[in-house]
Every structure is written in C-alpha cells, then in structure tokens.
Design goal:
Largest sheet: none
Number of domains: 2
Number of helices: 10
Mean pLDDT: 93
C-alpha cells in the first residue's frame, strides 16, 4: 500500500495543460521550451514512481522524446537564428504540443479507471494515524511498557479498521490483548516457575485471575470474560464477519483493557 501524492497530480495538470493549449509560431520557440521544463520533470517522475499507470506510459515516453529533440535543436542552433523560418524545427515544436495533447487524453482516461479510494474517518481517529501510528492510541506513559510485538498488532488492527476490514481488525487487537494478558499474569500472579510460553487459552488466564486475592485482578477477570464470551470467541468462527461499527467498538474496548493491564507493568528496558 502506498499513499498517493495528490498535489503531485495537481502540479502535473497545471504544467501539462498550458502546453496543450500553446499557440505555436516560430517566434515563440523559446517560450515553448520554457513551458516544457516542468512537464519534462513531472512526466519523468510519473513514469518512474507510478508503475500502476501503464496505459499512458507509451504516450508519456513519446512526449519526453519530443521534448528532448526540441532541446537538442535549441542547444545546437545559432541563437541569432532562433526565430528564423525552419520547417524541421517547426515540426519538432508542433510535435511537442501534439504529444502533450495525446498524453493528457490517455492519462486522464487511465486515472478515471484507476482503483483509487477515499478512506473515511473512524470516530475521532485521524485516518493517517490509524494507518501509520495506531499504537499511539496508548498514552505516552503506557507505550514504554508495551513490547514492539504488541505495538505491531495494534498497528495492524488500526490499518484494518481504517480500511473497513472489521474481522481482521478484531483478530489483531485480540492478539494484542492476549500478549498483554500474559505479561499482566506474570506481574500480578507471580507464577513459580515462570511459564516459558503463554498459557494455552484465555480461559486459563481468566481462571488464574479469578483465583487471585487482589480485587482489581478479579475485576479484570470479569472484564476479560465478557470480552471472551461476547467478542473474542465469535471471531474464531469463519462464518462470522464483523461490521465496521462492531470492529470499532471492539477496538475501543480492547484499548481500555490494554491500558488497564499495561499500567501494572514495568517499563521495558532495552537490552
């Protein structure tokens, strides 16, 4: 997935269209060359940076070749004869305009057919933040207590939420909850010896929390049981797909649970 630079296309259009409208005569050769300067750079960038645009590629290459031929002529011509009658030169400059019109037409048609979408905002979350920095839903005081693996799961969940992949969003955020649940279990239950792997399922963790003498841990067990019964177990069934609204609600619930459990954890020190 790549973010599309929309201002680039605006700039390309603002440079290309005047060239297609250029009224050429032999006294305006220098003006025509100046008009091609930005076009040459932008079209080259387009062809190199957007491989998905392949229909307009041949027309773009022909436009660049026509511009290059005109510049080669300019470098070799006696500047005192820049505006003299020269049919061969006229054909070079007229070709630039023709190729610019052709490229504009083909590019416009291809852009209309391009699969480009606008991602709608989810709640108060910035779309950019959901796609690139979803782990920042956690407070600054909590982030140092959370492993990179958990942050990666939250990031994947945020991306799925942004693109309306509800079930995938839920799957990743539940993985993040389970990872934090294991660290929380080690901290509050202090098992001896420490298990080398996570416990086999949520039920085992919840059972250990229920047996705790700490009221806060018992309350966490109640909340985790609700999430398990009402959300987590459901997404394990392949025939069930979460809507965007359901995924958003679970994302919010999981955020609160992760924050509550992580608050009890120590800051992770880099080794």
């Amino acid at each position: 997935m790549e973010k599309i630079n929309l201002p680039f296309f605006y700039q390309l259009g603002s440079e290309l269209n005047p060239l297609t409208q250029f009224k050429y005569d032999n006294t305006k050769r220098l003006d025509a060359l100046i008009a091609t300067a930005g076009v040459r750079t932008s079209v080259s960038t387009l062809l190199s940076s957007f491989p998905v645009l392949h229909v307009c590629r041949d027309a773009g290459t022909q436009l660049l070749d026509a511009i290059q031929q005109a510049w080669d002529w300019f470098r070799n011509v006696d500047k005192d004869k820049l505006s003299e009658n020269d049919l061969a030169a006229d054909r070079k400059f007229e070709k630039i305009i023709d190729k610019a019109k052709e490229f504009e037409t083909v590019l416009s048609a291809e852009l209309r057919a391009l699969a480009a979408y606008h991602v709608t905002q989810k709640g108060i979350y910035s779309t950019t933040d959901l796609i690139d920095r979803a782990e920042n839903i956690l407070p600054e005081s909590i982030l140092p207590k959370v492993s990179q693996l958990v942050k990666d799961e939250i990031k994947q969940s945020g991306r799925c939420l942004a693109f309306d992949s509800g079930t995938a969003c839920a799957f990743h955020i539940m993985r993040a909850v389970e990872m934090i649940m294991h660290e929380y279990y080690l901290k509050v239950c202090k098992p001896r010896p420490k298990p080398k792997k996570r416990l086999p399922n949520w039920g085992e963790y919840i059972k250990r929390f229920q047996n705790s003498t700490n009221p806060e841990v018992k309350e966490m067990a109640v909340l985790l049981q609700q999430i398990k019964d009402q959300h987590r177990n459901l997404i394990m069934h392949p025939e069930i797909n979460l809507t965007a609204d359901e995924a958003f609600a679970l994302f919010e619930i999981a955020q609160g649970v992760i924050i509550s459990m992580s608050a009890k954890l120590p800051i992770i020190r880099n080794k």
